[in-house]
Specification:
427 residues, 2 domains, two-stranded antiparallel ribbon, alpha/beta, globular
């Protein structure tokens, strides 16, 4: 693979950024292949909660990671004991992504390699365990490693240590938009010359009593007892999201760096948009104005217009407010007529809502979609809500070449993030 020097740069002189590695721990299992096969086949990875007795909770279903084995993912027994589950998920997904990228830090400048990783909530199990110990046994019995085990930035810190990444080490928390903002910030670091390589993503261990009680009492989660009818993005009968867990990891590089070392390029991060609703703590702004601005920003950075949009990998939570708002946002972006044709898909129909990990896992699916000229279906959806009025494919769309797709994440607090992902034109 060869590129002219000018092809390494965007029209504004900033650097082009590509994806060279991806890794996933998800309710579909371990690895990107498991994630992709589940989403593309429309498999729903949702079942009754096994971690605890959920009989008294508002919802009894979740999308748990099955059969996770820290040792099989490269961690020692000591590490597995000392790392919170969200950190374990982060390491496992990152090991896969790093191996696929094939980066040898012995030959790299570590001060040019960054880590941007977040979690929406962090180490919930350790938090709950610490609070129980404090109330039952007193302060002297609380684990001295309580804080460095449970706080959100420990995934980023441990990943930087593990892979020897000495540029920026950042942990971004924007609720359900965390994963997207981490990938977007890593893209910006590379685009503007602060790093050549970055490990980016998000992880979450959300299947815990305190988390599900909080979401359930807020009225955000599905009360369905039928796994097949629990997560139904854009469906007329949707009734809330299904909590999920896991991690998504992406290795980003400047195009010049990737070409110089002969890397296999999977897709291109063409743009990133980030905005705030400045509206409400939990509810999205109904018109979708903030989401529209984020999508426009992402497309413009890639040199695209809304007419170039191939498909939307929507936030698509299966809540009434989100899906209606996101549909309105798409119509505002591309117009009512075209919005009826642009495919809109949601990964959450298959693997639930993985919160801080969602944006990273969905970026992986979106990148694979544009790279393979296809659009996955939305599992769980049966009858599209006329109020939404968007084109939600119920079967895979194949042979569908696209210039660019958008992957959206929208978080509590009014955080909006949108990634523009393109097939790599140099292949």
């Amino acid at each position: 693979m060869t590129c002219e020097k000018s092809e390494f740069l965007k029209a504004d002189g900033t650097r082009r950024v590509v994806i060279t590695g991806m890794g996933a721990i998800s309710p579909a299992g371990t690895g990107v292949d498991a994630l992709w096969n589940a989403v593309y086949s429309g498999k729903q990875c949702i079942a009754p909660i096994t971690r605890f007795d959920a009989s008294g909770f508002a919802g009894s279903l979740a999308a748990e990671v099955p059969n996770f084995d820290a040792a099989a993912c490269g961690m020692s027994k000591k590490e597995a004991r000392r790392f919170a589950l969200f950190v374990q998920y982060a390491i496992a997904a990152s090991e896969e992504a790093w191996a696929q990228a094939g980066i040898d830090m012995e030959t790299e400048d570590a001060t040019r390699a960054a880590c941007v990783w977040g979690s929406g909530i962090g180490g919930l199990e350790e938090f709950q365990r610490g609070c129980d110990t404090l109330s039952q046994k007193g302060p002297k019995r609380v684990n001295p490693l309580f804080i460095p085990t449970m706080i959100e930035n420990m995934a980023a810190g441990n990943l930087s240590i593990r892979f020897g990444l000495k540029a920026d080490c950042l942990s971004i928390v924007t609720a359900c938009a965390t994963g997207t903002h981490c990938v977007g910030e890593a893209y910006r670091l590379i685009r503007h010359g602060y790093a050549d390589v970055a490990l980016a993503g998000g992880s979450e261990e959300s299947i815990s009593p305190i988390c599900l009680a909080g979401f359930g009492n807020l009225g955000a989660t599905s009360k369905s007892t039928d796994p097949a009818a629990a997560s139904m993005p854009f469906d007329v009968n949707r009734g809330g999201f299904v909590p999920g867990e896991g991690a998504g990891a992406l290795v980003l590089e400047s195009l010049e760096h990737a070409v110089a070392r002969g890397a296999n390029i999977l897709a291109e991060v063409a743009g990133f948009g980030s905005t705030s609703d400045a509206y409400h703590m939990t509810a999205p702004e109904p018109s979708g104005e903030g989401a529209v601005r984020a999508m426009r920003q992402a497309l413009a950075e890639g040199g695209f217009t809304p007419d170039d949009l191939g498909h939307l990998n929507a936030h698509g939570t299966s809540t009434h407010a989100n899906d209606a708002m996101e549909s309105a946002a798409l119509k505002a972006l591309v117009g009512e007529e075209r919005a009826a044709d642009v495919p809109v898909t949601s990964v959450k129909g298959s693997i639930g809502h993985t919160l801080g990990a969602a944006g990273a896992l969905e970026a992986i699916v979106c990148a694979l979609s544009v790279a393979n000229d296809c659009v996955p279906p939305t599992a769980g959806t049966r009858e599209i809500d006329p109020e939404c009025g968007v084109n939600v494919p119920l079967e895979p769309i194949e042979g569908y070449k696209q210039k660019v797709a958008l992957s959206n994440s929208l978080g509590f607090g009014g955080h909006n993030g949108s990634l523009a992902l393109s097939p790599f034109a140099g292949k």
